Amino acid sequence: MSTDTINWTALTVFILFFALVTVIGFFAARWRAGDMTQLHEWGLGGRRFGTIITWFLVGGDFYTAYTVIAVPALVYAVGAYGFFALPYTIVVYPLVFLVMPRLWAVCHKHDYVTGADFVHGRYGSSWLALAVALTGLLATMPYIALQLVGMQVVIGALGIGGEGFTGEIPLIVAFVILAVYTYASGLRAPAMIAFVKDVMIYIVVIAAIAIIPMHLGGYGAVFDAADKAFQAKGGATGLILQPGQFVPFATLALGSAFAAFMYPHTMTGVLSSSSGDVVRKNAMLLPAYTVLLGLIAMLGYMAIAAGVTVKSPTAVVPALFLKIFPDWFVGFSFAAIAIGALVPAAIMSIGAANLFTRNIWRTFVNPNITPAAESSVAKLVSLIVKFGALIFIVALPTQFAIDLQLLGGVWILQTFPAIVLGLYKTRLRPSALLVGWFAGMVVGTLMAYQTGLKPIYPLVVGGTTYSVYIGVLAGALNLVVSTVASFLFGALGIGQGSDETEPGDYQLSKAK
Questions:
Q1: Is 178 within 8 Å of 369 (Cβ atoms)?
Q2: pLDDT tens digits, residue range 116-131?
Q3: CB-based contacts of 221: which residues, under 8 Å, 6+ apart?
Q4: Cα(306)–Cα(192) distance, rounded to whole angstroms?
Q5: Distances (CA, A) of 204 to 64, 333, 379, 411
Q6: 3-state SS, residue 237
Q7: Which domains does the chain have, with CATH numbers?
Q8: What digits encode the pLDDT tens for the residues 421-440?
């Protein structure tokens, strides 16, 4: 690393805002103080977050730094196909409105901390709960690693990156800070930081969509330049979808919507709310972030119009900002992106720690664990998860990490039948759901392996090939197998399970 390549103005601004967030993170333990020896206080913020706090928290863990980096990068590379994230983040909220308040209500009634807790209580099966917990952990690790990708990109753009371990030191320092204040403050830390992160991101995006087109001759010139670039490139790129992209675009959007709130971090955000009514209100308010996402995606077209050329599309947004904005605003923007990585990474590690502690350690290792010991285990696991993700991204090529994350949606979708259908008293049996989960996991993973860890599988039906999101195919198989197996097990009188919940447990409460 050479000091003459460092953007000192941008770096100074970056460090100032990062330091501000660090102070907020440590201060968070005193905010709405609770007993941090209790898992529901450390891992769910005491279930006391109201509408506004939940809006920032869920928005902060759903719209991540990788969203700011990856969505415009995909649009930059392939055009309209990269906008699949827009319908996905529209479709998801009616689902959240219908389903998540019921989940909150029953989890609050029975003191469930995780989705796997609900599965255990609903079906009386520790093994089905274990499958849900392991799936959540598996899908979360590469997701945390991808937050590091976003941080790597902006740190490198500041001129302080480099090859080998030395170049990763700034990233390691940032994550050590994250690990310490998350350990001390639990979910309260990312909840407070989310306020700062979201305000900064909104400032950055509003400035970008107002100022960058002015430098490029207006939006008409931006679209015209992008269109010419895609025509010259040829292939399945362009400002509008190609016929062969209709099915993969639609299935990616639909499958991603079904998967989104099955992840441990998004579910943790929901369960930390003070009432089911808060969850419903946020399902109506959170689409405001979708507007932001659409504007962020436009940066991919702006980068084309600005003549930005990069070795990897992942570096498009930082390169665009360096070309257009003054150094001080570059530092502010990069700090917003980096902080946007810390918030979801913290929530993801907390969600993963809750799963391990409640559904693996307490169930299979130490059933008589005290609440204080339970909280201690969760804090320790949150550190292990964060540093495991850090080792993952430092030791392995970035491209491998990105490709592996595509499996996350395929995997987490396999928990959808057990959790969501379980909220509506279906006749699916736990043993049958476990068989369906296994079928979906194995077939989905094999499909992804066959396609080189790409999310789309070429499905041949009647001599015609349809490119379909693997998560949808594996999820459909899971549901079919679970249904058929339930009828078979019912006929044989096996695998009934037990249910500790009652119909009244799913009734919603009013907002606080």
A1: no
A2: 999 999 999 999 999 9
A3: 213, 305
A4: 36
A5: 14, 6, 33, 34
A6: coil
A7: 11-506 (1.20.1730.10)
A8: 999 878 899 999 999 999 99
